[in-house]
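retry 2 of 3: previous attempt timed out while embedding zinc ion. Reduced batch size to 1 and resubmitted. Inputs unchanged:
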Amino acid sequence: MLAEDFEISRLAIPAVSLLISFLAYTSQYFFYNFKAAPLTLDEGWAINVLALCIWVCYFRSCFVDPGRLDPKGKSVVHSQQEKDQSTGRQRWCRRCEAYKPPRAHHCKTCKRCIPRMDHHCPWTANCVSYFTFPHFFRFLFYTVVGMGYLETLLWQRASIIWHERDMPSYLGPSVPQLVHLLLLLVANTVTWLGIFILLIRTVWSMLFNTTTIESWEIERHETLVRRARVLGGFLEGPGGVKIRIRKQEYPYDIGLFSNIVHSMGDSINIFSWFWPFASTPDRRNGWSFETNEFEDPSVTWPPPDPDRIPIPKDSFPVHDPDIPISYASARDQVEAFDRRQAADMDRPRPYSTVQRRKRFHERFQEEPNYESDEERPPGPVYSNDPDEGEESWRNAEGERLRDFGVDEDVEFYDEDDVPLGLLMEQRRGRQ
Ligand SMILES: [Zn+2]
Ligand SMILES: [Zn+2]
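retry 2 succeeded.
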């Protein structure tokens, strides 16, 4: 499966380049030989200039670095993880072992945290991020304009052929020409429609300053609020921790114009939004973001999610002599944390032992009926299927987090993080 993905991602850029070449250049060959209405000089210029814009923007969407964590960020907050556990938030990346800045996500393909990650685009084999979004937007824009223009030229020729269909065939286009025109029309129309829809969605997300992943998070939050409403305002997290869930406003919608400016890399130069050679956003930006302040400053995005937080520290076995419960100094605490992580890394992790929290509804359906609360074993309930836990929650469009290229193992809690000893203890307790 991995090998398959690898091959597909390697073929994406050549395939897209081939399609651009087929549409932009073989179409000109067709027009050149189409005697009834050859390409005018202006039309020829327009096609080639638009094709050049598409090439430049596509190349930059593919090869501009989507950004990487500031190495200084690693030392920022070791205690962040513990703070997050109590509030049901997760801002610690356990792959990068670093503080995850707001709006960043860990990309499974790029193998690092990407600032303001929108999604990992399979067609550019690159992440759409704070730094690459403007290039990606221009690529979609010029593709829609360029292919829309080509579409009108192709239909003009097609309508000429249709009107002259009663003429003797030797006066009209040859069969290969007709087939070529048909192929161009089909390829151009289908691709144009697909990219046009993607452009509309992208502009929509610019207007509200939401990334594709954040739109998913907004829907996820609405679901959690609905669930919590039924359960008295709280949802249970790993280790039985109770997380308070309340409706939270999306913080990055800062007004229509500001939203667009921000999406275009904080550039207010409207001309540069459409200029294929516009510079990549300033590399110093992209780590903190202006908010609309509808919420209390202590409230962060994404909202608390009991399935996306690490297991609380209390659930780790306390008998480990290497992990004192209180620390003499901050330095000791950091060292203990590092030791714990190193031990975690050394622990053998056969894939089959990875267990996920069950889907929310299944946690209730499949639990045996205990006669009283005392009989119910403590702790959360887990799924045995590593692929079908709560991380497989999908939004209205049927997308789960990994569909955007996000590393779900980072974003969703899994039981693999619990030391084996504790697992055995829990299981013994349950039997
Ligand atoms: Zn990361
Ligand atoms: Zn990526």
